[in-house]
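for the recovery benchmark. tokens below, seq after
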């Protein structure tokens, strides 16, 4: 077995070059940490990532994170959305999200209820292709000097107080920290002995590209039937939910045309004929979450830390949020500028967000079930979602606008993502966050505030400017991940601000 000890030891090894591993690598490299990614798959071009099921809905926290790191402009669908002529369905009747497949409409959402959301804010949801997200992140990671090695699976590790030795089939690598971003079946999580607690599935989901001899036998749109649901999004692209208790997914049998046809016939109650399967995958609503996101020098992020049904598409967003949260904290620790407890705040902040997403997916499954009680509940949800408050509630959750951390501080904005203040000269606060530093934003030009940040050097950037709409605020402390650590409306309590700074920076 080859030992790479003669190479320099990277600060961090990330197991898995999925979107979460790549984004975490970008965050660490932006903060000048050395990062090596080991990725099991030799080829980054997975066929499943290129078909329409590779589409992912990106919600507000992800869009904001990408905007703050100047990544958003590279997503093609984002560019199209900026051009209204290419966006066919505009206006009040436009479906802008769903819960358990029940749509809510743009015209029903009352965004005036989000007091701190500014018109200059980035979008609330966009679609992007999984492959595209990974390509954009790979390009950025490589530009920042991240070493990505493909076709190398992590098979084991051993940690001491000071370092981690990572094993693969042919080589060993040393690093200071290891992060498992290696998906739902994470080897790192298993080897770290971290329990993956949760609930077992109620259905097997299928996404497949098939040839159908008689597609007219299938009804258009989403069809709920006594044993499940089927949807033909485009000719030959089918999604099926078969309430079989997740039995097929667990069996690891190949997905043959015969099997898919049998399931589709049963669920659709037709005698439709599938003649060929081009690509097919299964998924379930199994919902599990790691009971700890850390064991010593080893962390988990993304699907390695939590899995749930893809309904409503939140998994990628949840994982990217983990990466944005962990990146700056781990970097500060590596560079010896982390106050006590900073790394522990990763779990404290992200675990409850994960709990919320898992429960959100469970709630959807509960009312998607074809049994009569679930159908009755489903009808009630349908009614609620056409009301203004109902649609606004669901939009706030689905778009991630309500995402916040329970941080110390009494201002209502504390723990929330910073509103995208637009300065009088046209720049936005999001654009000032590209270098990944914290910001003390001072609308009052108070010299003593600048003096407070001076001793933190580059860690905290002091910005004194007037914004077009200041939302009644006088100053804010914004963490590198864009979340507000402290805010004041009128009188600035220097002592409180000093405490807030000391909580996050050294
Ligand atoms: C059908 C479907 C639709 C979805 N739609 C959405 C959506 O609309 N919005 C949304 O937010 N989420 C959605 N999701 C969820 C989303 O795809 C996942 O949450 C996301 O891909 C997780 O990213 P990750 O980087 O944590 O893990 P993955 O994308 O699973 O990446 C893990 C990487 O680790 C590698 N790896 C595995 N084991 C090892 C090892 N031992 N050593 C080294 N490398 C290893 C893998 O090859 C892979 O590249 C959907 C999921 C499915 C199945």
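predicted aa per position
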């Amino acid at each position: 077995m080859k030992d790479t000890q003669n190479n320099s030891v990277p600060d961090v090894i990330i197991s898995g070059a999925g979107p979460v591993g790549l984004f975490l690598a970008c965050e660490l490299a932006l903060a000048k940490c050395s990062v090596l990614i080991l990725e099991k798959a030799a080829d980054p071009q997975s066929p499943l990532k290129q078909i329409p099921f590779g589409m992912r809905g990106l919600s507000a926290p992800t869009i904001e994170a990408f905007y703050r790191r100047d990544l958003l402009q590279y997503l093609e669908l984002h560019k199209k959305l900026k051009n209204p002529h290419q966006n066919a369905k505009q206006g009040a009747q436009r479906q802008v999200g769903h819960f358990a497949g029940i749509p809510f409409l743009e015209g029903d959402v009352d965004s005036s209820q989000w007091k701190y959301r500014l018109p200059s804010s980035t979008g609330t949801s966009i679609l992007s292709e999984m492959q595209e997200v990974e390509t954009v992140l790979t390009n950025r990671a490589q530009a920042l000097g991240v070493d990505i090695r493909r076709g190398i699976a992590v098979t084991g590790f051993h940690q001491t107080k000071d370092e981690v030795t990572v094993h693969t089939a042919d080589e060993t690598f040393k690093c200071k920290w290891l992060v498992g971003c290696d998906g739902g079946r994470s080897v790192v999580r298993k080897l770290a002995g971290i329990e993956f607690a949760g609930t077992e599935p109620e259905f097997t989901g299928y996404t497949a590209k098939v040839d159908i001899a008689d597609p007219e036998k299938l009804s258009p749109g989403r069809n709920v039937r006594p044993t499940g649901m089927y949807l033909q999004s485009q000719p030959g692209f089918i999604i099926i939910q078969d309430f079989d208790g997740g039995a097929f997914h667990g069996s690891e049998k190949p997905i043959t045309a015969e099997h898919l046809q049998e399931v589709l016939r049963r669920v659709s109650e037709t005698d439709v004929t599938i003649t060929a399967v081009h690509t097919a995958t299964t998924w379930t609503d199994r919902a599990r979450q790691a009971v700890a996101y850390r064991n010593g020098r080893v962390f988990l992020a993304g699907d390695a830390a939590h899995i749930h049904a893809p309904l409503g598409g939140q998994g990628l967003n949840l994982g990217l949020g983990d990466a944005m949260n962990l990146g700056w904290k781990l970097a500060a620790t590596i560079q010896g500028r982390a106050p006590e407890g900073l790394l522990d705040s990763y779990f404290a902040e992200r675990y409850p967000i994960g709990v919320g997403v898992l429960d959100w997916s469970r709630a959807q499954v509960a009312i998607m079930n074809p049994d009569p009680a679930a159908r009755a509940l489903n009808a009630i949800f349908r009614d609620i979602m056409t009301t203004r408050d109902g649609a606004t509630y669901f939009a706030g959750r689905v778009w991630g606008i309500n995402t916040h951390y329970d941080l110390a501080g009494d201002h209502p904005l504390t723990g929330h993502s910073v509103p995208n203040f637009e300065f009088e000269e046209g720049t936005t606060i999001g654009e000032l966050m590209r270098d990944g530093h914290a910001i003390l934003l001072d609308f009052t030009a108070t010299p003593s505030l600048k003096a407070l940040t001076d001793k933190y050097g580059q860690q905290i950037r002091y910005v004194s400017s007037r914004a077009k709409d200041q939302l009644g605020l006088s100053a804010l402390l914004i963490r590198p991940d864009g979340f507000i650590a402290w805010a004041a409306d009128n009188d600035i309590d220097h002592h409180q601000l000093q405490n807030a700074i000391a909580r996050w920076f050294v």
